[in-house]
Amino acid sequence: MKKSVYNGLYLVIAILLVLPFVLPNSFYLDLAVRMAINAVIVLGLNLLIGFAGQISLGHAGFLGIGAYASAVLPTHFGWHPLLAMGAGAAATGLLAGLVARPIFKLKGHYLAMATLGLGIIINIALRNEAQWTGGPDGMPVPGMGLFGFELSSDKQWYWVVAVLLSVSVWASLNLIDSPFGRALRALHGSEVASQVVGVDVVRYKVAIFVLSAVFASLMGSVTAHYVGFVSPNFADFFHSIELVTMVVIGGMASVYGSLVGAVLLTALPQALATFEGWETVVFGAILMLSMIFMPKGLVPTLAAKFGKGE
Amino acid sequence: MSMLQVKDLSIHFGGVKAVQNVSFNIDAGIVYSVIGPNGAGKTTLFNLITGVYKPTTGEIRLDGEAIHGKSPNELATRGVARTFQNLQICMNMSAVENVMVGAHLRLDRNLVKAALRFPGLKRRDAETRAEAAELMRFVGLEKYVEARADAMSYGALKRLEIARALAMKPRLIFLDEPAAGLNPKETIEVDHLVRKIADSGVTVVLVEHDMKMVMNLSDRILVLDYGKKLAEGSGEEVRKNPDVIAAYLGAHA
Fold first, then answer.
1. What is the pLDDT of residue A310?
2. Is A177:B125 a contact under the CB 8 Å cutoff?
3. Residue A224: which pLDDT band, with cuts at 50, 70 and 90?
4. What is the pLDDT of residue A309?
5. Which residues touch A207 (CB under 8 Å, ≥6 apart)?
6. Which residues in chain A have their CB less than 8 angstroms from residue B101's CB?
7. pLDDT > 80? residue A61
8. Cα separation of B110 and B71, whole Å?
9. Of B67, B176, B235, B236, most Cβ neighbours within 10 A?
10. Number of folded domains in chain A?
């Protein structure tokens, strides 16, 4: 049973290897890149929400910090993109760590409100500091060079993101089945029980919050370079909600659920484009129905149905 | 010197004085029981000593060192384990993982090593899993080693909590009504289990309503009533104490 958890990883790698050769055109390749980027963000967020049981409604704010670090620092200060990316991640980690201590004294709705507020504050800052960020219009992001080699085509980006995704899935699976991961799941299952066996609950909540925020920041930087443009919408409340929805639809506390959720919800708006003007309604209906009939999310529900467990 | 010294311990919740000026000592290696009618403050006393509540006044010393006001996870590092009257099982984990969590403090909790799957960590994890399975056998749960926690019966979960507490390799274990809600056969099994734990050298503090079990196991008994200490002594002394008889059977008995 323990072995089979990693079988899914081999499947993911196999799909990632084959995909660029079967996709008909660059539109689909672009979609695949965005799916993979979202999948990495959602993996990190699911560690926080699904495994540790703590909500964050402000994660797009962390994406925004990473994205804008990659836009502002190279443009205005001539920093190397990798250095800017690292600085964004470090700043995000620091900010998340600083606010996490007071935030994780809160639970449930209050925690949701606090993270929501944090996300909105970051968004407002990005919108208002127009001399640096271009304000509501956003700003272009310079290209990303790796070891004197410019990442330009979608195909190159695809391979970079595919490697990032595979490594993230592997690391997530490892983390969950480790003393650290068990402590996280235990504090979700019973906070007081985890405390009396010696888990420093606040420390673990802070650690996973910072980790998932840094994940988001790094992928924010990647997105910024890939798209070549950032705008405050990327860091807004609705994007935070979209990410949480990916976690919930795919399956809380499910690594592969994170991937399925990210893939589905990235593809869905494209697939619904034919509904012209009604796509938001159909989108909402699909979310509602899946929550009514599959409250645990797609992957856990299907896994239970076919009696495999994850 | 006694292992655990409790002096003038009180806690007030608003106007309710749940525990008032309770003092007692527990020597190492014994089975010490706390009894009393419902609402007497037994579980509150447990929550105070294990750090879940902070006392309003009074002091608690473990091996002479003051531990009142310390958090539960700090007490865990000092070898204090406990189970809960209302089950606190992690239903999102398998049975054996619940027990493995008990070994938390003895394992390498490094995040980076875990994410990168360091071989040493994996090896230690496999050993921990084997130890946890062994503990489940010790408490009589051998057939649940592969089970999910949410698929187990109430009686089995009670014992799973004991296995998790034992995985801490504690010196002092607090068992809060381990036999509550169990059938007579299961109660006898838990009785034997508590005896086995005490025989292995762990000091046991027991809250239990099953008087047969309490009298059978305890070296010393503390009787609480309305948050106050009513009596303390051996089973024989407590049974003959007129105050205790009055509290349990009514004033005119």
1. 44
2. yes
3. very high
4. 47
5. B111
6. 182-183, 186, 193-194, 197, 199
7. yes
8. 22
9. B176
10. 1
C-beta neighbour count of B27 within 10 angstroms: 13
Interface of A with B in 204-223 (CB under 8 A): 207, 211
Please give the model's pTM, rounded to 2 decimal places: 0.93
CB contact under 8 A, B84 and A200: no
Interatomic CA distance for residues B30 and B234, integer angstroms: 12
* Residue A198 phi, psi dihedral angles, 5° rounding: 110, 5
Residue among B77, B111, B161 minimizing CB distance to A198: B77
A81, pLDDT greater than 90:
yes
Any idea which architecture B1-79+171-253 has in CATH? 3-Layer(aba) Sandwich (3.40)
Q: CA triplet B38, A197, B160: central angle to 5 degrees?
A: 65
In the predicted model, residues of chain B with pLDDT beneath 70 are 250-253
Structural domain for A155, as ranges: 25-236
- From the CB of residue A78, how many other CB atoms can be counted at a distance below 10 Å? 9
Q: CB distance A193–B117 less than 8 Å?
A: no
pLDDT above 50 for A295: yes
CATH 3.40.50.300 in chain B is located at 1-79+171-253
Residue A242 belongs to some domain of the structure: no
Residues of A in contact with B73 (CB under 8 A): 195-196, 198-201
CA of A162, closest CA in chain B: separation in Å?
18
DSSP symbols for A70-111 = HHHHHHHH---HHHHHHHHHHHHHHHHHHHHHHHTT--HHHH
Can you spell out the DSSP letters for A126-176? HHH-HHHH-GGG-EE---EEETTEEE-SHHHHHHHHHHHHHHHHHHHHHHH
Residue A37 lies in a domain: yes
- Is residue A287 in a domain? no
State the average pLDDT over residues A58-70: 97
**Which two structure tokens, joined as six digits, stand for A295?**
């409250």
Task: Determine which helix (DSSP H) or strand (DSSP E) holds A229, and give its type and residue range.
Answer: strand A229-230
Cβ neighbours of A277 (radius 10 Å): 6
